[in-house]
Amino acid sequence: MAPVRLDMDRLIDDRRTRIIVCCGSGGVGKTTAAAAIGLRAAERGRQACVLTVDPARRLAQSMGLTSLDNTPREVDGVDTGGGGSLHAMMLDMKRTFDEIVEAHSDPDRAAQILANPFYQSLSSSFAGTQEYMAMEKLGQLRRADEWDLIVVDTPPSRSALDFLDAPQRLGRFLDGRLIRLLTAPAKTGMSAMRVLNAGFAMMTGALTRILGAQVLKDAQTFVTAFDTMFGGFRERAEATYRLLQAPGTAFLVVAAPEPDALREASYFVERLDAERMPLAGLILNRIHTSQAGRLSAARSLAAAETLETQDRPNEAGSDAPRNTIAIAALRMHAERMHLSKRERRLAEHFTSAHPAIPVAEVIAQPEDVHDLAGLRVVGTILSRPGS
User: Fold this and answer.
1) Which of 253, 254, 322, 364 is most buried, with most CB under 10 Å away?
2) pLDDT digits (tens, 9 = 90+) for 303-343
3) What contacts 218, CB < 8 A, 6 or more positions away?
4) For the chain, which domains are there?
5) Is residue 363 helix, strand or coil?
6) In terms of DSSP bridges, do strands 249-255 and 279-287 run parallel, antiparallel, or are they unpaired?
């Protein structure tokens, strides 16, 4: 049974669709897909913004921008005749964290937090910070209500769905024993502190040996200054999580016709279903096609062998006309036919396991997409009814 066709134009033309999240394993073309969807939506009248949290710079390059940063920038060269526009930005994890501190604390306390070495390390490299900040930035963009469609390009690999865990992970961190310990001196009264002093001294002594006295002091100073902001972090993360579950959000799983990528796609599909996230469909990228009416792989190889035989020197020693180019072309065609058949078999295995998921296929392009023209081609293919 043929898979259900993903109607991309219907998805992006539906004004109720406010967020599209492209997820999938690394190297399958999520960045290109997100940019192509954003461009097509803009040229069909949407006020679109593409947010990439992929550390690669390919999104900026494909949109003709020298760089992207934490501020949405308008993309030139977009056909705005339909009233749409396109902005793009790349998540700056640390800058987003800094913006939150500045927005939710007074100037003196913000300066104290931003200068704290523990905070600087946390905001730059703490596990899960990028995914949480992606949630923050998405929430900020949605609350700004400046764009009626936000397209999110998620990080590569299985961590592409880690942003779904960000609220819970952050909550575990903020409610963890270490945080409670570090805030205990500030929250506990003097009489109680005298009672707890011996145990606290033993614990901090152990932490000092592990972390070092200065690191522990920096951590305590940070937690004390940051304590009033913890609840706001959790609340905003949970609000964005609910936003991802809302009817106005659509998840697109992007995969290549390769075993590992399609296994990851199945994982994403199952995880999204478990989290009750609205899955719109699968984009199967870089498909190799075989043209009907052409030689089969077997006949193509047989023809190549015949030409090779003709190319061998005859008994008189004279060379027959060389057919090197034709032989190479026939063998290349046979390889493409085998590849197409293998990819089709892999795709059918996925669609048979997930028959209700709409699929859009994008044929492999002759070269990497690096400009708006290339993105338009991909967008057109995505929206082609019979592709």
Assistant:
1) 253
2) 666 766 766 655 445 554 567 777 677 666 666 666 677 77
3) 116, 117, 118
4) 8-164+247-290+345-382 (3.40.50.300), 297-342 (no CATH)
5) strand
6) parallel
